[in-house]
DNA sequence: GCCGTTTTCGGCCCGACTGTTTTCAGTCG
């Protein structure tokens, strides 16, 4: 049985909520943290369980022997006995009910005990009948809010894609640019760390007039409804996404930005380092509490060190500024302390696009239009890589070998006219056995061959992709797992093993920048780069405007600690040609 | 339940906001 990480994570989140409904202390937090780390783990945790048992699963941060053995139990039997007992004691659809804004585990427990509410439908029926406002501790306002939030909970139980949330954040940043009370503003939270999926949009503003900022925020034309609004913070819903605003004093902006960017685990490690130095870090600043009797006696206890900028905050802890994309508690604080932070790739380092489609397959623009658009962007080279026919290609999208020969002539012709280097390539399909769906003679004529899995996208794909990577004519493995965010998890990969083989074979691993994919993930990129593999940031463009998606790939590379040198398409044309063996 | 150059036992982040309450519980981030 193949079990996805997010499926495991959901189980332990349910575990946490059921325990919390019973007033159990501390355990819920432990289960939630374990769930979060399982969800974010770059490889299949179920695979870990199968290969190495509880010991291997305990390698996941904040997973100890108790939770690890529950993972093993679930992978082996499809059930966790303790969870079944908890469910029997509180037989409710916990995930659905707690997805209603303002309804948490305690509320679920109370409404089950008092009214027998088990599902969203039960909740709606009880609210419409006015029963909820009769329960002690509840009132009419709570009942109204539940009704108001129910539809939203029914419609959107998924995290939003980075590619949806980023443009929204850009919009509101433009709105704030016209508000006089806003001194500085930034996105924070997981969006600033460029996580592939986002729970909500976090915004931070520096201002001496917080209430004016909150007013401007709730008046924003794209704010569809106001969830809450106080003197220094507010939340609205916009286009189905929750947007949280926090306003802070300008002199505390750096500390607040550091605090609200997270991740929580990164901040815990940072705080630990502060404690070692007699310092205290919170959202208001870094404080020297070495001469203070009770450092917990207030928010701003002790002497405040500089914290107008994030760099000040890290400097106070003898650390260089750690880029937001790295703040996932994957060893970055230790690396920073030892001066080992990589010089991360930046958007401006990208010199070319090595994966694009034209009207020959499923693109919407001609070879010439795609090449000219790349030249206009200032790129030095592109690789025309239309789909080949083969496993996973439906509706006649992919090209036969004869058609590819025909296209090759056109690509050469466009290349002769172009100011930039035009590589002739293909996106071939990797069969279930690792074979490549284009004839070897034709592959040898091409400059840059991408091999991508498009079919049989479940189970372990490591051996299959290694075989493709070792094919002498293959230069890039495209979207290696084949995952589609919120839809399918794709292949399980032993990334270190694949990366070592790819490095040996001089084959690059793709970071596909499409917001639906972001494949490889940042965590996988880190493992790949550590094994010496070269990665390539491609947009898989089907139109010129798709070239803009490159930022998502670059920031994913940064989440994987990649420097420009690790990324093939930051190299100069001659070096890329040498890598391709042309 | 997890975790440890202060601990293998005894801690666990904490502040803002809301709605329900007369001083607080629940939710959220």
Provide the CATH architecture of the largest domain. Alpha-Beta Barrel
What structural class should be given to the helix and strand makeup?
A: alpha/beta
Unreliable runs, pLDDT <50, ≥5 residues? none
Helix share bin: 40-55%
What's the domain count? 4
The largest beta-sheet arranges its strands as 11-12-13-14-15-16-17
CATH topology of the largest domain: TIM Barrel
CATH superfamily (homologous) name of the largest domain: Metal-dependent hydrolases
On the 0 to 100 scale, the average pLDDT is 91
Question: Would you mind describing this structure in some detail?
Answer:
This protein is an alpha/beta fold. The chain is built from 24 helices and 17 strands. The strands form four sheets. The chain has a seven-stranded parallel β-sheet with strand order 11-12-13-14-15-16-17. The radius of gyration is 26 Å and the shape is globular. The structure holds one DNA strand of 29 nucleotides. InterPro entries: DNA-dir_DNA_pol_X, DNA_pol_lamdba_lyase_dom_sf, DNA_Pol_thumb_sf, DNA_pol_X_beta-like, HHH_MUS81, Hlx-hairpin-Hlx_DNA-bd_motif, NT_sf, PHP_dom. GO terms for molecular function: class I DNA-(apurinic or apyrimidinic site) endonuclease activity; DNA-directed DNA polymerase activity; exonuclease activity.
């Amino acid at each position: 049985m193949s079990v996805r990480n997010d499926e495991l994570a959901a189980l332990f989140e349910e575990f946490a909520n059921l325990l919390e409904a019973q007033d159990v202390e501390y355990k819920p937090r432990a289960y939630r943290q374990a769930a979060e780390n399982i969800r974010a783990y770059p490889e299949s945790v179920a695979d870990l369980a199968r290969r190495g048992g509880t010991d291997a699963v305990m390698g996941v941060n904040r997973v100890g022997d108790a939770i690890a053995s529950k993972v093993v139990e679930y992978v082996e039997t499809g059930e966790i006995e303790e969870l079944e007992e908890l469910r029997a004691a509180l037989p409710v659809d916990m995930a659905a009910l707690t997805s209603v804004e303002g309804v948490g585990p305690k509320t679920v427990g109370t409404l089950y005990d008092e009214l027998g509410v088990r599902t969203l439908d039960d909740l709606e029926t009880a609210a419409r009948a006015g029963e909820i406002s009769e329960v002690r501790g509840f009132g009419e306002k709570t009942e109204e809010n539940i009704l108001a939030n129910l539809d939203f909970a029914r419609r959107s139980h998924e995290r939003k894609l980075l590619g949806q949330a980023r443009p929204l954040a850009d919009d509101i940043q433009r709105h704030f640019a016209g508000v006089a009370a806003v001194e500085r503003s930034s996105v924070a939270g997981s969006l600033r760390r460029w996580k592939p999926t986002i729970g909500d949009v976090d915004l931070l503003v520096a201002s001496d007039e917080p209430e004016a900022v909150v007013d401007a925020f709730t008046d924003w034309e794209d704010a569809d409804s106001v969830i809450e609004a106080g003197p220094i913070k507010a939340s609205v819903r916009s286009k189905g996404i929750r947007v949280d605003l926090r306003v802070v004093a300008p002199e505390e902006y750096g500390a607040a930005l550091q605090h609200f960017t997270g991740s929580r685990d990164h901040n815990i490690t940072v705080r630990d380092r502060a404690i070692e130095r007699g310092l205290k870090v919170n959202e208001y600043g870094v404080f020297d509490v070495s001469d203070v009797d009770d450092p917990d006696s207030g928010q701003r206890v002790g002497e405040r060190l500089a914290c107008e900028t994030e760099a000040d905050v890290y400097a106070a802890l003898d650390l260089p500024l750690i880029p937001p994309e790295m703040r996932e508690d994957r060893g970055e604080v230790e690396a920073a302390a030892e001066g080992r932070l990589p010089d991360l790739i930046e958007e401006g380092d990208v010199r070319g696009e090595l994966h694009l489609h034209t009207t020959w397959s499923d693109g919407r623009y001609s070879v010439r239009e795609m090449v000219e658009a790349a030249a206009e962007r200032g790129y030095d080279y592109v690789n025309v890589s239309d789909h080949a026919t083969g496993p996973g290609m439906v509706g006649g999208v992919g090209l036969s070998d004869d058609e590819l020969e025909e296209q090759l002539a056109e690509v050469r012709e466009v290349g002769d006219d172009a100011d930039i280097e035009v590589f002739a390539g293909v996106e071939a399909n990797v069969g279930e056995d690792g074979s490549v769906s284009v004839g070897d003679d034709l592959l040898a004529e091409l400059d840059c061959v991408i091999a991508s899995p498009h079919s049989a996208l479940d189970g372990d794909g490591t051996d299959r992709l290694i075989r493709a990577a070792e094919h002498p004519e293959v230069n890039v493995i495209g979207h290696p797992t084949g995952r589609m965010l919120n839809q399918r998890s794709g292949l399980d990969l032993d990334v270190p093993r694949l990366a070592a083989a790819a490095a040996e074979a001089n084959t690059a691993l793709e970071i596909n920048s499409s917001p639906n994919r972001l494949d490889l993930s940042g965590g996988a990129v880190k493992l790949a780069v550590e094994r010496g593999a070269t990665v390539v940031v491609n947009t898989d463009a089907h139109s010129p405007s798709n070239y803009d998606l490159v930022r998502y790939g670059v920031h994913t590379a940064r989440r994987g600690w990649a420097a420009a040198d690790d990324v093939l398409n930051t190299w100069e044309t001659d070096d890329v040609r040498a890598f391709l063996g042309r």
